[in-house]
Design a protein that fits this description.
The protein is an alpha/beta fold. The protein is 37% helix and 18% strand. The strands form four sheets. Strands 1, 11, 12, 13, 14, 15, 16 and 17 form an eight-stranded mixed beta sheet that branches. Strands 5-4-6-7-8 form a five-stranded parallel beta sheet. α12 (285-297) links the parallel β6 and β7 (309-312).
């Protein structure tokens, strides 16, 4: 799926050419793609159109002014939680429709007894992929993309992954791994979507994905548990009552907790069957350290093929690695390929770290930093710049893809020692806490933001 006139189609399968683009050549192609994207999406996405109209902007907006049309990351939770609590999925559907060009068939919406049931219907009937956040503020972000967009993302990630491991001596035709994931194999949470992406990117078949659980506990579970925790934290006694569906998920969570030791033992025994094969450990530093220690205790240390790999996730959420992390990894895997990525649920592109410690941004993504001391306007796209990260994914066909993130980042627009000329993100990324109701940290005017929010509420 691509927007007509996208000049980056030929770069999706050519990493060398993609990361050789920089400076005026890159800006010219991005400007062309931006104009084509806005011409396609402004008539289809009411909140985007409202942002543009309120600021006197149209499809010919200059690349340097594009961040005035970016959505804050918190816009993806601007629905009323009462709609979910009441099972009002008709309103939820109309709200979600404002962010995607995919027809969500509002006139054909059946009754649902759970959030999971609604999301499954969207996937199976409408051909849309929906990811949700953990909802730590009491609302889950809901990110919708056409399945074609998701498939294209997997294909681009595969190309980037083959290039990365190729720099460590892995031949392209041999760039497949058995993935070991200490979580659930399936689900719609941001973490499970990340695991699914890794499987599609790195495993030759679904059978080459070894997980601790078959499926996650679901969006209803996340929504209930987070709201219950918030109620307790506020000293409230009116805790939400779980539905029978959620009660079953809660019982499953209790079972998992009680049987964690046995489930981990099962995972280790399954790992033993992969001796001599190339594996990729993926998870938080603490979960991977636990697996490595248990694996060494079971005699599996350094029993896997050379050029195995590890992927540490969750570093931006306070999950610092244990002090002996590098040591236990080495005892279990031996010399291995470190794979580190950066991204967000709201993005349709992820960024992989090169050997020089920089996350390189492909040319179909225009990257900015916003200046907190300068009215949150974008800093020049040159040299080194630091501020709030903002991205425009010009390959995201079924949604806008202009995003102001929750991350404070530093961008280096100069060529990297790895040979890539593309802009890159340095590793000193910091998460920023934003209120769900505060939109003062984006370049759009307050009047424009209000117009977009009013459009969202009017349509839903």
């Amino acid at each position: 799926m691509s927007i007509k006139g996208n000049p980056f189609d030929s770069y999706f399968t050519d990493q060398a050419a993609a990361h050789d683009l920089a400076g005026e050549d890159l800006a010219r192609l991005q400007q062309t793609a931006l104009s084509a994207k806005l011409a396609d999406l402004l008539p289809k996405l009411p909140p985007l159109a409202a942002l543009a109209r309120a600021q006197g902007l149209d499809e010919e907006v200059l690349l340097c002014d594009a961040p005035k049309l970016f959505f804050p990351h918190t816009i993806y939770k601007t629905y009323d939680p009462a709609w979910l609590l009441a099972g009002n999925f008709a309103r939820m559907n109309r709200w979600l429709q404002q962010f995607t060009t995919v027809d969500l068939k509002n006139g054909e919406l059946p009754q649902f007894s759970s959030i999971d049931g609604w999301l499954a219907w969207l996937e199976n009937t409408c051909g849309i992929d929906v990811a949700h956040s953990s909802g730590t503020t009491g609302r889950m972000s809901l990110i919708a993309r056409a399945k074609e967009d998701a498939e294209a993302r997997h294909a681009r990630n595969r190309v980037a992954f083959v290039t990365l491991v190729g720099e460590h001596g892995v031949a392209p035709d041999d760039a497949w791994f058995h993935i070991v994931w200490p979580g659930a194999a399936g689900g719609r949470s941001a973490q499970q979507k990340m695991a699914e992406g890794a499987r599609r990117m790195s495993a030759r078949s679904p059978d080459h994905f070894l997980s601790l659980y078959h499926n996650d506990l679901g969006a209803d579970y996340e929504f209930f548990v987070v709201r219950a925790r918030l109620a307790r934290r506020m000293g409230r006694l009116d805790l939400p009552s779980p539905s029978p569906y959620v009660e079953a998920r809660l019982a499953e969570a209790d079972r998992r907790h009680a049987q964690y030791a046995q489930d981990q033992e099962r995972l280790i025994h399954s790992l033993a069957e992969l001796a001599g094969k190339r594996i990729m450990l993926m998870g938080s530093p603490h979960s991977l350290a636990t697996i490595c220690r248990a694996g060494v205790e079971h005699g599996l240390g350094r029993g896997f093929a050379a050029q195995s790999a590890h992927v540490s996730v969750g570093g931006l959420k306070g999950l610092d690695a244990p002090a002996d992390y590098a040591t236990v990894l080495d005892r279990f895997l031996g010399p291995s390929i470190p794979i580190e990525g950066y991204g967000a649920t709201e993005m349709n592109t992820g960024y992989m770290k090169c050997r020089h410690g920089r996350f390189h941004v492909p040319p179909w993504v225009a990257i900015y930093v916003l200046d907190p001391a300068g009215g949150w306007q974008p800093k020049p796209r040159e040299g080194k710049q630091e501020g709030r990260g903002a991205f425009l994914d010009l390959a995201f066909a079924s949604a806008w893809g202009g995003l102001v993130t929750a991350d404070h980042i530093e961008i280096d627009y100069t060529p990297c020692g790895c040979g890539r000329k593309s802009p890159s993100i340095l590793s000193n990324i910091r998460r920023v806490a934003d209120s769900d109701e505060d939109f003062s940290w984006i370049p759009a005017s307050g009047e424009a933001v209000n117009a977009a929010l009013e459009e969202l509420l009017r349509a839903s």
